[in-house]
């Protein structure tokens, strides 16, 4: 009898290798018996899987040294701090950033520059991004790490599974394929190709929240059913259901910024009226706070400066800024009430720039959300979803990109990684 | 090495039995080679599975009679028209309905009565429902069918996986466990227990749309990414992603009726303001159309009479009714624009009572949806999701319930069905 692909011996072995690597990545250091217990295999079943991952350079031994000639009874397994690295990149409206993480989720190198990307053609933006990527890959190569994948976070719609930005209104990009411009990094001379992923920044921010708690010191992340809201120039959301991103039929899910909040309200660039972005987007809040005049200066000061300006004014008690942020919270609460009534998530997570503005945005947001989700609130538990603030803040999309770039290794350890004895990647 | 549950031989066999039965249910009559081709197994692999399903009485042979002593080369497989039946029941605000379908999805018996269920206690409502169920099970028992499951559609929130209606505002029910009241049907004396499912009616309406096209003569259903909107007294939605219902963390997803449409608008019973139900719910439309006075009379005339009254007035050109339905369409379009921006479904399906009112609701609904989802519309394809009208109309939730009741048989044919030689179920 033929078996479906997943049920073949090779398929089962591949899954089990992935489960061993993922268990050690999330919870290591782990002894071999602890790995076996965690993934429900026998110790005899785990041993050859561990050996194969050690040979491939994906796992390493730590812990007490082995008594000579007696095997290594007290040894523990960790993921390798050499070998594959995930490259994350972020194209923001006013900055570019790159980071590299190792299999353990540790940031091994990062670089960022301010950049005026609004209405800049993709070509020059990608040239500057390539320069940052070359800098970062050079630094990690010196530490024995090679890029296993590159994921790029963009503030716009990306065709599902593709590398083309379908529409990024705040960059002014339409139908921009990023693959050719990134070829110097993804198809280097004399080195293996580096798989490229392009993804909406809100989606990547949400993926960063999903990382195992062990990866950044044990603080638990949100439960795997949540709506993650992030803002840079626009407002995006990512819907995570049972730990999986809901991408939509064409990959365009999560356009919270264009959910109608006041249907007869302000005209939006999208052609609609009263979209959330017209009340809680960065430009709207800057205008309402009277801080729009300071914008050019803030733009020169690098990433996040405009948000920092708002946070500073609000913490100084500037009435116009405090009012503008409260109104943004009201609009966010109305839009999120719709999302919560539709999706019944366990939590709403404020990420990206919103994380830094949470003290002034949250009270009105929570008031609207509570008022408008009563029917969906469980009377027994007296409440709807928890509203939390991302522990990653504005770093979320960049870290999420780096994690997404490593995902292929964690899901299929031996296919996506060159054997340990292959020649090292050359530094460009 | 231990294998995860799904990878055991028994697990694989169970899945393959289900795939054979599902293939024949959706596409039969099928020859054995056609079954093998459709599910990607060899003919030798399929033969013992088919034999086991024939022995269990779940499959039957049709087609040309077998030449004596030569096997049955021209025989084709169909699902049995005896054996397990799915019982669907619907508790509406003004009616009760029951139907039974066989494995082929054919309706074998149905019964309905008008009933004034609003603010009636669950006990008496369930007593009347049990009487209808007894009538229907008696009729199908005479045809050799036995109930394999009962699913009940209710206009309210149901705890995920449970039998308790957490809140059904239009019935006035809170924390009502339906299991005890239905015990005469689900735990009959001298017969096997009948598993009970209680589910939100909008979810079941959406499940009915998911039935294989073969089940009702080949008309294709909507693609498996859609938002299904239905209305009885309230308005509910079901979100289907990759063919699966999105239920939400607590099972409360789909509360489209309480999505804010005009945030400073009319007060809603839920405690919010400007909820969709206040503009497009049945009571709101009846009030706005001036037809509310005819309501008591219509209530006596049985299920759907109020909707029929609206449709009659609108097709007679009554200006107040036409205007009321157009305003309902506008409100629906605004709420659905939010849902489409968030979820990017392939289609929006109007079901339940809305299907019958589509001619007057659709134009304004589509206008709002197009205006407010431009950013999520694929420029290459110039459009957002298709808006379609359910082919099942007001029958959707009831049929969906009957299908849900059969689901356990189709997913695990041998566990959930008594062997063919077990004593027949007694008619109560």
TrEMBL record, chains A, B:
One protein family per Pfam: ROK
User: Per its UniProt record, what InterPro entries does this chain match?
Assistant: ATPase_NBD, ROK, WH-like_DNA-bd_sf, WH_DNA-bd_sf
Q: Could you name the domain of life of the organism this protein comes from?
A: Bacteria
Against PANTHER family, the record matches this protein to: BIFUNCTIONAL UDP-N-ACETYLGLUCOSAMINE 2-EPIMERASE_N-ACETYLMANNOSAMINE KINASE, ROK (REPRESSOR, ORF, KINASE) FAMILY
Similarity section = Belongs to the ROK (NagC/XylR) family.
Name of protein:
ROK family protein
Q: Which organism is it from?
A: Streptomyces siderophoricus
């Amino acid at each position: 009898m033929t078996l479906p692909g997943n049920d073949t011996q090779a398929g089962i072995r591949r899954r089990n290798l992935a489960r061993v690597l993922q268990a050690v990545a999330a919870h290591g250091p782990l002894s071999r018996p602890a790995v076996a217990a965690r993934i429900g295999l026998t110790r005899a079943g785990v041993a050859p899987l561990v050996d194969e991952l050690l040979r491939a350079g994906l796992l390493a031994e730590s812990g007490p040294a082995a008594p000579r000639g007696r095997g290594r009874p007290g040894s523990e397994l960790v993921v390798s701090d050499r070998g594959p690295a995930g490259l994350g990149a972020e194209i923001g409206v006013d900055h570019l950033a790159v980071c590299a993480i190792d299999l353990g989720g540790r940031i091994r190198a990062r670089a960022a520059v301010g950049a005026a990307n609004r209405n800049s053609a993709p070509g020059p933006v990608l040239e500057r991004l390539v320069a940052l990527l070359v800098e970062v890959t050079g630094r990690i190569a010196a530490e024995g790490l090679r890029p296993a994948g590159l994921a790029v976070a963009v503030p716009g719609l990306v065709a599902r599974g593709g590398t083309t930005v379908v529409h990024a209104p705040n960059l002014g990009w339409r139908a921009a394929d990023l693959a050719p411009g990134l070829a110097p990094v993804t198809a280097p001379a004399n080195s293996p190709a580096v798989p490229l992923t392009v993804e909406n920044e809100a989606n990547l921010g949400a993926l960063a929240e999903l990382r195992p708690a062990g990866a950044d010191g044990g603080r638990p992340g949100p439960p795997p059913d949540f709506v993650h809201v992030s803002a840079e120039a626009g407002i995006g959301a990512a819907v995570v259901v049972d730990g999986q991103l809901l991408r939509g039929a064409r990959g365009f899910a999560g356009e919270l910024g264009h959910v109608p909040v006041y249907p007869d309200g302000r005209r939006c660039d999208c052609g609609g009226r009263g979209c959330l972005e017209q009340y809680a987007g960065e430009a709207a809040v800057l205008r309402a706070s009277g801080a729009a005049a300071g914008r050019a200066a803030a733009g020169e000061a690098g990433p996040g400066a405009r948000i920092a300006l708002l946070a500073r004014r609000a913490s100084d008690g500037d009435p116009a800024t405090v009012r503008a942020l409260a109104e943004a919270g009201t609009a966010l609460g109305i839009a999120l009430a719709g999302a919560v009534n539709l999706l019944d998530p366990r939590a709403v997570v404020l990420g990206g720039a919103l994380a830094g503005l949470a003290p002034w945005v949250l009270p009105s947001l929570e008031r609207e959300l509570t008022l408008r989700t009563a029917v969906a609130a469980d009377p027994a538990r007296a409440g709807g979803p928890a509203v939390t603030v991302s522990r990653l803040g504005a770093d979320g999309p960049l870290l999420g990109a780096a994690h997404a770039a490593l995902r292929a290794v964690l899901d299929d350890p031996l296919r996506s990684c060159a054997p340990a004895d292959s020649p090292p990647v050359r530094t460009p």
